[in-house]
Amino acid sequence: MSDILKIIHKYFKRQPELSHHQLQALLTRAMQHQVLSKEEGSMMRRILNLADTPISSIMIPKSQMVCLEASATMGQIVDAFLQWGFSRLPVYDTDQDNIIGIIHVKELLRFWHRSAKNIRAVEFIRLPNYFPQTMKVAQALSEFQKRNISIAITIDEYGIPSGMITTEDLVEQIVGELYDEYNVELRQYRLMENGHYLVDAGIPLDKFQELFKLNMESQAHTLAGYILEKLQRIPLPGEKFRIHDLDCAVEEGSPSKLKKLAILDKRT
């Protein structure tokens, strides 16, 4: 992953003399003359497009972030790292509109020999890196490489945290998007042979309600946001729960992001 970041940083560290359109045309010719394979050319095209993609479109939204309170005890900190499997967690004071730092799991070792009874999360934090959510993915990749970081907090136009971005989220725009290009088109939901719906967790909540004829009172904008609002945590792959009269199971996801759910509507 670090090798990919180095290549991209080198590519974007100078303003290209050719226009975006000219570079795209050169890539097309390079593939036509087999200077680049189709896969290589497509990946380069993805890299070029990163210059126009804002990180707000790929960030983990604040509603799905796993965070620690500044007053969390050593026991609570350890439990959180064990439960979610992360190496870093954001820390907030009062609420998630006030992210004050990042805790690295390695920091726990510095205090392990001491009595941990009175230690709180605020004692472990490193100052966070803040990126405006309008920053382009290409620039964010370059900044991650220059600053040697793997996580940053995104902020809106008022300076309020809106989410976070990680190295994995950024690199996925090249590797993950390339995979999508050569496979089935992404859809927000589809009916499977077993009668279950496979639903993208990012589906707008109003569209989800329309699909299953539900009336759900919520401030959330997506299904993932609604689930986090109700469970107060991100469910893990394989976990089952209910939404109204729907049986739900997490088909795809990670400790930091809910991706796809299998949903059975027993009302039909």
Automatic annotation (TrEMBL):
Keywords: CBS domain, Repeat
Statement: the UniProt record of this protein carries the keyword Repeat: yes
Domain CBS: 59-122, 124-181
Alphabetized CDD domains for the sequence: CBS_pair_CorC_HlyC_assoc
Domain of life: Bacteria
GO molecular function, one term: flavin adenine dinucleotide binding
Database matches in PANTHER family: HEMOLYSIN-RELATED (PTHR22777), UPF0053 PROTEIN SLL0260 (PTHR22777:SF17)
Protein name: CBS domain-containing protein
Lineage per the UniProt record: Bacteria, Candidatus Edwardsiibacteriota
